[in-house]
Amino acid sequence: METAFYFCTACCFLIIFSNVSTAIDTISPAESLTDGMTLVSNGGTFVLGFFSPGTSENRYLGIWYNDIPVQTVVWVANRISPINDSTGLLQIQNGGRIVLQVRNTTAVWSSNTTASVRNPVLQLLDSGNLVVRDGNDNNPENYLWQSFDHPTDTILPGMKVGVDLRTGIDRRLSAWKNWDDPSPGDLTYGVDLEGSPEMVLWKGSEKYSLSGLWIGAGFSGAPTYSSNPIFDYNFVWNENEVYYIFFLKNQSVKLRNALNQSLSQSQIYTWNPESQTWQVFLALPIDYCDRYGLCGPNANCDSNKLPSCQCLPGFKPKSPQRWSSSDYSGGCEHSKPLNCQGGDDGFIRIANVKTPDTTNSWFNRTMNLRECRASCLRNCSCMGYSNLDITGGGSGCVMWSDDLLNIKQLQTEGQDLYVRVSASQAEQKKKPNVRLAIILTTVIGAFLVLLLVVCYIRRRRRKLRDEFGDKNVNDKENKEEDGDMELAVFEFGTITRATYNFSVDNKLGEGGFGPVYKGTLANGQEIAVKRLSKNSGQGLTEFKNEVKLIAKLQHRNLVRLLGCCIHGDERMLVYEYMPNRSLDAFIFDQENREILTWPKRFQIICGIARGLLYLHQDSRLRIIHRDLKASNVLLDSEMNPKISDFGMARAFGGDQTEANTNRVVGTYGYMAPEYATDGLFSVKSDVFSFGILLLEVISGRKSRGFYHANKSSNLIEHAWILWKEDKPLDVADDFLVNTGDLSELLRCIRISLLCVQQHPEERPSMSSVVHMLGSHNELPLPKQPGFLLNKKHVEPDSSTDMDASSSRNEISLSLIQPR
Ligand SMILES: *[C@@H]1O[C@H](CO)[C@@H](O)[C@H](O)[C@H]1NC(C)=O
Ligand SMILES: *[C@@H]1O[C@H](CO)[C@@H](O)[C@H](O)[C@H]1NC(C)=O
Ligand SMILES: *[C@@H]1O[C@H](CO)[C@@H](O)[C@H](O)[C@H]1NC(C)=O
Ligand SMILES: *[C@@H]1O[C@H](CO)[C@@H](O)[C@H](O)[C@H]1NC(C)=O
Ligand SMILES: *[C@@H]1O[C@H](CO)[C@@H](O)[C@H](O)[C@H]1NC(C)=O
Ligand SMILES: *[C@@H]1O[C@H](CO)[C@@H](O)[C@H](O)[C@H]1NC(C)=O
Ligand SMILES: *[C@@H]1O[C@H](CO)[C@@H](O)[C@H](O)[C@H]1NC(C)=O
């Protein structure tokens, strides 16, 4: 009865309220907001009301988006004092204090409005800010209280995160404990004022990840994100306030930055109106090198290297034993003692880094780099310095004392850090004549090298021109492309000559989109020509995509594209030739498999991982391969792996991590379940394919077409069953078990199972994979893998959980046309 009554009142209120809510978006002391009513912001974007999160039955007062179907709460008032029934009532009292009451008596939450005004009004602004204003005040931006000063777990555009030094208010976020409970978890995010200020993500009282210094146009940990197409951000740092803020570049985009307790991340989401879902645009920590102090003091973390932790130049591991067994916590120390008193120290420059933890730092905005250096040199406790602001040629000075902690190597942008070392190790030598000599030799040397390079380029250009001669004039697209990419466009005649008119003898194989031919140019250079079949479904757009992408990507574990050729509606790609063909020709071949011994295989695995990491993390483009498999890994003359076939890779703006596609491409047997069934691809679906590939390299068996008497219908399942039966090594090729390093083998099996886990968010990123391959640390336990079961091979008595996943995945089989 009672619930029915409440429900009815709620409905009536809702109806009455929604009738007037577009006109009235404020509450004054005579009115109140009860459970079931909502207050809509003036532009209709946000709504204030009572809600129950997840499966909880508790009621909370909160703000969520009004105009999207997924309830996304951005602010909660009574997050630590839930209401257990629907008697919640929000009122604004005469002075201006807002109070949330239950059962008409008990206050469970209130605003700490200090000022007292005659005519207070409560208003929800279209920015998502709930404010108390004086109705008589002509300045509508004079807030007595605002929810933006009391954030929960979400930053909205226009909201400040940080400290107001005048009022002492510290706007700090804390994650929800879990989906059902908005009370504060232990993950918090805010400004740390100690030393020089920076943004910090804490776990409990420990620092978890730092932004690095604000260096003018961005944080030194991610300087390029300031040029993203969606939002502008700023870090304001003056005597009154220190805060981080962002603004939308396009007001019709929805963007929020929320903390995620389970992943320990600060995630920036954008709303995708097509798929009606939130998508992660950027998450911090960006990779494991952003984890606080991962490499210990005086070391640099480079996620593109193995091992990732490297002592700074002029430093050596404090404990070489522990360091070599991948325990980096002890960090590094000077390899030659300093002689500060003798005035005999110098500095080594380390380019493109995220600055060290600023706790033990101090700064001066007016000093230039030279004064900064001199000042650091004078003070024996100063261990390093850098510019404060790198825009406009650099200005300001930051100096660090004690150990330098939390340095991360970036690839292209970032701060130059000068680290104190003993004079003999420093870049600049003291004696002027020596210095002069060095400068002279360097200059002369550089000049000679330059001369040689110029000559070489000239000669090569001429040669290329002679070789490929006239361009295909009847294709306009062709000319355009050539202009902005500087990619060699081969004449069709050159290609036919090189491949003996695509003779059968020259055919290397049938790639994803057509046959591949070996060719020899007139100058003797060997090439591989991929002749894209006309019915491959790859149109001009995709072709251009592939050509542009591959041309931009250069890494020693990626196949290099030399050029392309367009002849009528026929398109060809010209690659460097890989004499040892592809990985599948070895691992699945009874005669050749022993050529690839375990150390060689391990090296190949690490190479593939690094190549894929490069694709996923290159600062400007984020490439998802989408068709990683053994036949797409080519081997050069020294058996170094090179990933090929980016035809289906899609360029992201360096930001999106997940996208939805209605055209599933890829190869059955390597596809992640979420990709095969829902067309949802992400870097994590590549990680899945990598996991399969790893299993294949270890087992010497194909993922597809695998059949085992032991009921298992595919390789993952086979490996998983053996893992659960505690005999993981049984999955490996006997020849490897007999000759390889068993602990490394075991480690790789475990990594492969981590990569093929059912849930994409549980799979490691490629940077963690690279790290796991290179370290000896304990690995997490893999969870249930994502099966792509072929129902035919499943015995009727197979366990129920497999049945559940297979029935879901069965749909996928009709979607895919196995090649
Ligand atoms: C709600 O909590 C109050 C005490 O805070 C308690 O007296 C009441 O029984 C609870 N109601 C329900 C429905 O659990
Ligand atoms: C709340 O209490 C006031 C008096 O204190 C009373 O007038 C009002 O009707 C009560 N409201 C409800 C919903 O019980
Ligand atoms: C208001 O102030 C009281 C005491 O000063 C404090 O316990 C309470 O948490 C504050 N409430 C909010 C919402 O800040
Ligand atoms: C803003 O975003 C909307 C939706 O994403 C888009 O349609 C529109 O073209 C964008 N406007 C500008 C100026 O970029
Ligand atoms: C945390 O992030 C994961 C992956 O993006 C998502 O599935 C999960 O729902 C998020 N949790 C919360 C509380 O937002
Ligand atoms: C910064 O350095 C300049 C030049 O050395 C000096 O005059 C000034 O007092 C310094 N400022 C602070 C705040 O230390
Ligand atoms: C030297 O650096 C330390 C580091 O914190 C600082 O406290 C001290 O004032 C500096 N001394 C001079 C003379 O600048």
From TrEMBL:
<feature type="domain" description="EGF-like">
    <location>
        <begin position="285"/>
        <end position="321"/>
    </location>
</feature>
<dbReference type="InterPro" id="IPR036426">
    <property type="entry name" value="Bulb-type_lectin_dom_sf"/>
</dbReference>
<protein>
    <recommendedName>
        <fullName>Receptor-like serine/threonine-protein kinase</fullName>
        <ecNumber>2.7.11.1</ecNumber>
    </recommendedName>
</protein>
<keyword id="KW-0325">Glycoprotein</keyword>
<feature type="compositionally biased region" description="Polar residues">
    <location>
        <begin position="797"/>
        <end position="819"/>
    </location>
</feature>
<dbReference type="GO" id="GO:0048544">
    <property type="term" value="P:recognition of pollen"/>
</dbReference>
<keyword id="KW-0732">Signal</keyword>
<comment type="similarity">
    <text>Belongs to the protein kinase superfamily. Ser/Thr protein kinase family.</text>
</comment>
<dbReference type="InterPro" id="IPR024171">
    <property type="entry name" value="SRK-like_kinase"/>
</dbReference>
<dbReference type="InterPro" id="IPR000858">
    <property type="entry name" value="S_locus_glycoprot_dom"/>
</dbReference>
<dbReference type="InterPro" id="IPR003609">
    <property type="entry name" value="Pan_app"/>
</dbReference>
<feature type="signal peptide">
    <location>
        <begin position="1"/>
        <end position="23"/>
    </location>
</feature>
<dbReference type="Pfam" id="PF00954">
    <property type="entry name" value="S_locus_glycop"/>
</dbReference>
<dbReference type="InterPro" id="IPR011009">
    <property type="entry name" value="Kinase-like_dom_sf"/>
</dbReference>
<feature type="domain" description="Apple">
    <location>
        <begin position="340"/>
        <end position="422"/>
    </location>
</feature>
<dbReference type="InterPro" id="IPR001245">
    <property type="entry name" value="Ser-Thr/Tyr_kinase_cat_dom"/>
</dbReference>
<keyword id="KW-0067">ATP-binding</keyword>
<dbReference type="Pfam" id="PF01453">
    <property type="entry name" value="B_lectin"/>
</dbReference>
<keyword id="KW-0547">Nucleotide-binding</keyword>
<keyword id="KW-0808">Transferase</keyword>
<keyword id="KW-0245">EGF-like domain</keyword>
<keyword id="KW-0472">Membrane</keyword>
<feature type="domain" description="Protein kinase">
    <location>
        <begin position="502"/>
        <end position="779"/>
    </location>
</feature>
<dbReference type="Pfam" id="PF08276">
    <property type="entry name" value="PAN_2"/>
</dbReference>
<feature type="region of interest" description="Disordered">
    <location>
        <begin position="791"/>
        <end position="819"/>
    </location>
</feature>
<keyword id="KW-0418">Kinase</keyword>
<keyword id="KW-1015">Disulfide bond</keyword>
<dbReference type="GO" id="GO:0005886">
    <property type="term" value="C:plasma membrane"/>
</dbReference>
<feature type="domain" description="Bulb-type lectin">
    <location>
        <begin position="24"/>
        <end position="145"/>
    </location>
</feature>
<dbReference type="InterPro" id="IPR000742">
    <property type="entry name" value="EGF"/>
</dbReference>
<dbReference type="GO" id="GO:0005524">
    <property type="term" value="F:ATP binding"/>
</dbReference>
<dbReference type="Pfam" id="PF11883">
    <property type="entry name" value="DUF3403"/>
</dbReference>
<keyword id="KW-1003">Cell membrane</keyword>
<dbReference type="InterPro" id="IPR021820">
    <property type="entry name" value="S-locus_recpt_kinase_C"/>
</dbReference>
<feature type="transmembrane region" description="Helical">
    <location>
        <begin position="436"/>
        <end position="457"/>
    </location>
</feature>
<dbReference type="GO" id="GO:0004674">
    <property type="term" value="F:protein serine/threonine kinase activity"/>
</dbReference>
<dbReference type="Pfam" id="PF07714">
    <property type="entry name" value="PK_Tyr_Ser-Thr"/>
</dbReference>
<dbReference type="InterPro" id="IPR001480">
    <property type="entry name" value="Bulb-type_lectin_dom"/>
</dbReference>
<keyword id="KW-0723">Serine/threonine-protein kinase</keyword>
<keyword id="KW-1133">Transmembrane helix</keyword>
<dbReference type="InterPro" id="IPR008271">
    <property type="entry name" value="Ser/Thr_kinase_AS"/>
</dbReference>
<keyword id="KW-0812">Transmembrane</keyword>
